[in-house]
Amino acid sequence: MKAAYISTFGGAENIQYGEQTLAINDTDSVTVRVKASALNPLDSKIMAGYMEQVFPVQMPYIVGSDFSGIVEEVGSNVSQFRPGDRVVGRTDPCAGGALAEFVVINAHELVSLPDEMSFEQAAAIPTAYGTAHLALFGKRKLQAGQRVLIHAGAGGVGSFAIQLAKQAGAEVIATASAKNIAMVTSLGADEVIDYRSQDFTQIAPVDVVLDPFGGEALERSWQVLKPGGHIATLADFAITDCGDRHGHAVFFADATVALPQAMRDFSNGNLQIVIDSIHLLEQSRAALERVASGHACGKVIVRSGR
């Protein structure tokens, strides 16, 4: 099969496109013909070798975890899927494999797609939606009436988090660039702060902050947090409490927990999926460069040519 892979750690310039061997389908696995895959900042970090202690990988490494497609073959123990079914899933980041024409995955890691959902929309969901859901409702559950500040509201995680927070009855403040304010407002944000020209620390105190950045943005976020409030960060795994304000790191692992809810929300008209750009599999380098730029509005999608 054709795939986008790396043989050494580095940036998008290290991506190669060519033939790779498809794993053997065992009794509990499903072979999926990939129709679309989605990239995440985690993919860039794994490629660079920054996550080697957490996600050790073997070379050559086929990049990507989020994918959707059509079931090609099922193992003898698999009864919930059959060839021709439309599915979405997320591989273990250590295994990767999404930027390819086929992927082999355990059947319990797949979820069926609603008829009205495109493959591109489906691929955008697993990591970003699952991370947003875990950040808001994992260790500390967001409550109706609370105020939440969501940084990078136009990003993959942020765009889902805004919608989830609004559905939970929270008041949502988001940061975004000026060109994305209208889009972020359409997702349900009650207030949008242009991070280039406005100081988010001047807002009224909030109960929850969702931080994807770490660094200075995280440090300044403590200033807007109410006593007893908490920061959920995707970037700082060493975060500790700050006085009577709490911090915890979000480590997303299992997409199958949140995926069924995402499918229901979409079918009920309660979930918008923002797609930044769509690239062909042989254009994976450009797709990864777009993710690495940090300026994607929504999700960067790679479409398989087959």
Class based on secondary structure composition and strand pairing: alpha/beta
Q: Could you give a short account of the major beta sheet?
A: 7 strands, mixed
Mean pLDDT score: 95
Radius of gyration: 19 Å
Helical fraction equals 10-25%
Break the fold down into its secondary structure elements and pairings.
Layout: E1 2-6, E2 16-19, E3 29-39, H1 41-48, E4 61-62, E5 66-74, E6 86-90, E7 102-106, E8 110-112, H2 119-123, H3 126-137, E9 147-150, H4 156-167, E10 171-176, H5 181-186, E11 191-194, E12 206-211, H6 215-221, E13 225-233, E14 246-249, H7 259-267, E15 275-280, H8 284-293, E16 299-303
Parallel strand pairs: 9-10, 9-12, 10-11, 12-13, 13-14, 15-16
Antiparallel strand pairs: 1-2, 1-4, 3-5, 3-7, 3-16, 5-6, 6-8
Please provide a written account of the structure.
By secondary structure, this protein is an alpha/beta fold. The protein is 23% helix and 29% strand. The chain is built from 8 helices and 16 strands. The strands form 3 sheets. Strands 3, 5, 6, 7, 8, 15 and 16 form a 7-stranded mixed sheet that branches. Helix 6 links the parallel strand 12 and strand 13. It is globular, with a radius of gyration of 19 Å. It starts with a strand and ends with a strand. The mean pLDDT is 95.
